[in-house]
Amino acid sequence: MPLNLPKNLPAVDLLKKEHIFVMDSLRAAEQDIRPLRIVVLNLMPLKITTETDLIRLLSNSPLQVELVFMKIRGHQPRNTPVEHMRTFYRDFDGMRGECFDGMIVTGAPVEQLRFEEVTYWAELKEILDWARTHVTSTLYICWAAQAGLYHFYGIPKYDLPVKMSGVFRHRMLEPYRAIFRGFDDEFYVPHSRHTEIRRADILRTAGLTLLSESDEAGVYMVMARGGRDFFITGHSEYAPGTLHDEYVRDTGRGLPAAMPVNYYRDDRPDSPPVVRWRSHANMLFINWLNYYVYQETPFRVQDIPAMGEL
To answer: In terms of C-beta distances under 8 Å and separation of at least 24 residues, what long-range contacts does 24-27 make, across chains too?
Structure first.
């Protein structure tokens, strides 16, 4: 089923070139289907890139999905046109009274700051609290996972001696959970971060379930409230070239950036990456939408009366 997206969103043209079927809101309104409403709080610096990455994965579900983009009040990103933010993003203040079937909170380039030093920390906490009463299930990615675990459970983050960058092998600790339907025994996930959360902190905290980890990358997936919250430390949504772009950016700035691990063919940066995580990423988002959003949301498609009954 296609995604219902705002008309003229740049991601639409990009994804049509990949033969991914999307429709704008006007066409979707002609169909007698209530789509799942998913709100995305996009904190990544390259908004359009992140939008495209997420839409690419969400489009693989048989469920129709309507995406709504949220932004932090008064925070203007430096790498995204002002007009794009005005056209496609809404302030949280205007969304307080709405309910959503699902929510995705992305990572942010602020992980080396203390949470309280992040300029929008107060508003982010307010949004996270709001999500617990207005959203069926929320997916927290990378820094957002660390922020959510810290805000709700007091889980600290720890600085790493060097940036963790690469594609790492993971295993499931509870393989019969619905989020893992269709997964292989081992799967790969990209990571790109300067900090980590630790296994011992998760295991000693009531209400948290460690679902997946990696020998090299550590904690990967943590669940809370029976699947109403998923905290994911990696970037399953990354496009094939994203780790390369970050590596080139960091080395170009003179930062101590190590070459991404298990990423380039023959470990040569002048060779293309080997994509090992695409199938896992697709199953992750499909399972989340189906089993933890659609199956659990109180207002499903079949609950909406047909047009003739209105």
So the answer is: 25/66
Structural contact between residues 108 and 195, judged by C-beta atoms closer than 8 angstroms: no
- For the question of residue 142 being annotated catalytic, the response is yes
Of 51, 66, 237, 246, catalytic: 237
How far apart, in whole angstroms, are the C-alpha atoms of residue 217 and residue 185? Answer: 17
Q: Give yes or no: 99 in active site.
A: no
In 3D space, the residue among 130, 120, 111, 92 whose CA is nearest the CA of residue 235 turns out to be 111
Backbone angles phi, psi at 9, to 5 degrees: -60, 130
With a cut of 70, say whether residue 32 has pLDDT above it: no
Tell me if the pTM is above 0.70.
Answer: yes
State mean pLDDT over 7-17.
Answer: 64
- CB atoms under 10 Å from CB of 65, counted, come to 25
Could you give the 3-state DSSP secondary structure of residue 239?
coil
Candidates 82, 54, 35; CA nearest to 297 is: 35
Structure tokens at 63: 């469920």
Contact assessment for residue 13 and residue 33, using Cβ atoms and an 8 Å cutoff = no
Q: Which residue has the tokens 């909170």?
A: 105
Give the number of other CB atoms < 10 A from CB of residue 260.
Answer: 23
Q: Is 112 helix (H, G, I), strand (E, B) or coil?
A: coil
By 3-state DSSP, what share of the chain in percent is helix, strand and coil, each rounded to 5?
35, 25, 40
How far apart, in whole angstroms, are the C-alpha atoms of residue 293 and residue 201? 28
Quick check: 165 and 257 in contact, CB under 8 A? yes
Task: For residue range 269-309, list pLDDT tens digits in order.
Answer: 999 999 999 999 999 999 999 999 998 776 543 443 333 33
User: Which of 111, 142, 191, 246 is an active site residue?
Assistant: 142
**pLDDT confidence bin for 255, thresholds 50/70/90:** confident
